[in-house]
Write a structure and sequence with these properties.
This protein has helices spanning 11-16, 18-21, 25-41, 51-57, 62-74, 92-120, 188-203, 210-223, 225-237, 248-272, 282-285; strands spanning 46-49, 79-83, 86-90, 164-167, 173-176. It is mainly α and 286 residues long. The longest helix has 29 residues, at 92-120.
Length: 286
């Protein structure tokens, strides 16, 4: 990641800092130039060099720089140290931000290293003391192989009509048996409509529970095969989440309105082609 072209400048802190306010305008101008130089160098919040070098960086004379360093150190605006003719200036806020970025980068590096180790399977597993009940020569408890499903078990039952998918402990979907279709409804037409109803509820993200399936099948059994199939087809066609029978009153009303509209159109066409009541002139009659 490249260096950002700007750094955060807190205007309120700059104007309200009492230590900086005690400095002269010339010192404040030199200090802001030095802050920009810290950002342009390595953003570490430190800047070191001889007085002549720092004067060129701050675009001032060595005398002006010496006066500014004195004010900055006396007011504790910056940490100023002079060792062996090398002056080091430090901005405490920029230094803290630099250290925080450095620590974050080290944490990310350590995390990526762990991820790479785990992906290659080279992680050293912690050894456990051998168990008294273990029969494995390595001291680890041998895994018991899964027992095969019993005859008439639940394997594959969920794929039948009425099966309800459920999640097992590992987060995978396991099909559990659902209520069986009653014998009075067990026809190809109803089975196709019922399968379409289950798919419709699944697509709407409202899967039926075994209890709901049992109640719905009991209600549909009372209606009979013909009415139950028509109700399911009507509910799926209209996008219902419940099963409703078609309303005969609404259907008859709709048919009546359609018939009336057809009669009105026919009457209108008949009037358009009726002979006029007034006789035509003799010139046109010939």
């Amino acid at each position: 990641m490249g260096k950002p072209p700007a750094f955060q400048f807190y205007v309120g802190d700059w104007l309200k800092d009492p230590a900086l306010t005690m400095c002269s305008p010339a010192t404040r101008g030199i200090w802001i130039d030095l802050l920009c130089a810290m950002h342009e160098s390595d953003r570490s919040g430190q800047l070191s060099g001889t007085p002549e070098q720092l004067a060129r960086v701050a675009r001032c004379t060595p005398v002006q720089l010496s006066h500014a360093l004195q004010e900055l150190g006396d007011s504790h605006t910056a940490d100023v140290t002079d060792r062996n003719s090398i002056v080091t200036l430090e901005n405490r806020r920029m230094r803290r931000e630099f250290q925080a970025r450095k620590d974050a980068a080290e944490r990310q590096k350590r995390h990526r290293g762990k991820v790479e180790i785990n992906s290659h399977g080279d992680v050293t597993q912690k050894s456990h003391p051998p168990s008294s009940s273990s029969s494995s020569p390595s001291g680890r408890k041998a895994k018991t192989p899964p027992s095969p499903p019993a005859a008439g078990g639940n394997r594959g039952v969920g794929k039948k009509l009425g099966g309800v998918p459920e999640k097992n402990g590992r987060g995978r979907t396991a099909d559990l048996p659902g209520p069986a279709i009653p014998g009075s409804l067990d026809t190809p037409e109803f089975r196709a409509a019922w399968q379409e109803w289950l798919t419709h509820r699944k697509e709407k993200r409202q899967k039926l529970t075994p209890t709901a399936i049992k109640r719905q099948l009991a209600t549909l059994e009372k209606m009979g095969v013909k009415r139950a199939t028509a109700a399911i087809e009507h509910s799926v066609a209209n996008g219902y989440t419940g099963i409703f029978e078609p309303d005969p009153a609404k259907q008859s009303t709709g048919r009546a309105r359609t018939d009336q509209a057809a009669r009105r159109r026919a009457e209108k066409r008949g009037r358009d082609f009726e002979e006029p009541d007034t006789p035509l002139p003799e010139a046109f009659a010939r």
